[in-house]
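Thread: Newbie trying to understand structure tokens

Hi all, I'm a second-year student working on a class project, and my supervisor (Dr. K.) asked me to get a predicted structure for one chain before our next meeting. I've only ever worked with sequences, so writing a 3D structure as a token string is new to me. If someone could post the tokens and maybe explain what I'm looking at, I'd be very grateful. Here's the chain:
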Amino acid sequence: MGTAAIDDAVARLRGGGRVLVAGWEDGVGGTVVAAGHAREWFEAHTLGFHMVEPAERGPGGFLSEPSPESAAVELLQLAGRSEGGYGILLPVRTTVSGDAVLPRFADDEGLVLIDHEDLAHHLWRNARLVVANGSAPVPTRSGTFEGHVFTSLVDGLEHIALVFGEVAGDGVVTRVHSECLTGDVFGSRRCDCGAQLEMSLDHIAGEGRGVVIYLRGHEGRGIGLAEKFSAYRLQDRGLDTIEANLELGHEVDSRHYGVAAQVISLLGITSVVLLTNNPEKIVGLTDLGVTVAGRLPLWSEPTAENERYLETKLSRLGHLAPGVS
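---
Reply by user tm_fold:
Sure, no problem. This is what the structure looks like when written as tokens:
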């Protein structure tokens, strides 16, 4: 499997073949997608054939609500097919490794095998999932930026890019900033988010060229505002930020940078110099097709309230220390 298999899957559907989508949970062993009507094969091998109408759906539905149906719609849209459908394979109980069952079935039936996570990755890299929705000058303490609103077609969230100067081209100083209401708006001293945002605006204005991309929906590294407050309570009892997120049943960091990558492309930026201390942000953007030409550190002076928070970033999250280029 892998992202290259998506191209094979799309080609197979264009030619009238079938594709097997793996990686499901909750009682789904796999999803077989086909163009047109293929009821006999589906009745023999799956729970039956379910028609879908790809032309009536917008892009990105699979990303907001992953399901066998939405996977079929996305794949058929990519293949340019006006009709088609899917069938569900139940999980197979076997002494053979579960990882071997679907590949063997795909080989026996002549199916292209892909993983649903590869489909999601392909969509973020190749489908237009963000649209521009207006712009206006935004005077700030650092200078006047041109504010551009971008709306995600996946979840409807509005994001903003604050642009200074002409940014189309290479080597654009860029801050991809995760929303933090407490730090950015109220100046909370539990984190360094507000300070990083102000430093980014100052740096870009000083450069005379650059952009701050402000991503909504990233509160608490993706867990949301209410859960972030629950994590604060756990931190007050001695847990660090990682332990608190895990205690609440969340990932350490569930942020995704697909919107940022598409905004960078829409702005005509061909490579970025990131204002960040987080190497995972560089990896995430690079994996989505963004060319990261360099990095600039973004450390603020610790406070009594955020000293442990910053230390956790360094010791457990691998953030790059001040002075490291």
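A couple of things are worth pointing out once you decode it. The first helix runs from residue 4 to 14. Residues 4-125 form a domain with the DHBP synthase fold (CATH 3.90.870.10). Feel free to ask follow-ups in this thread.
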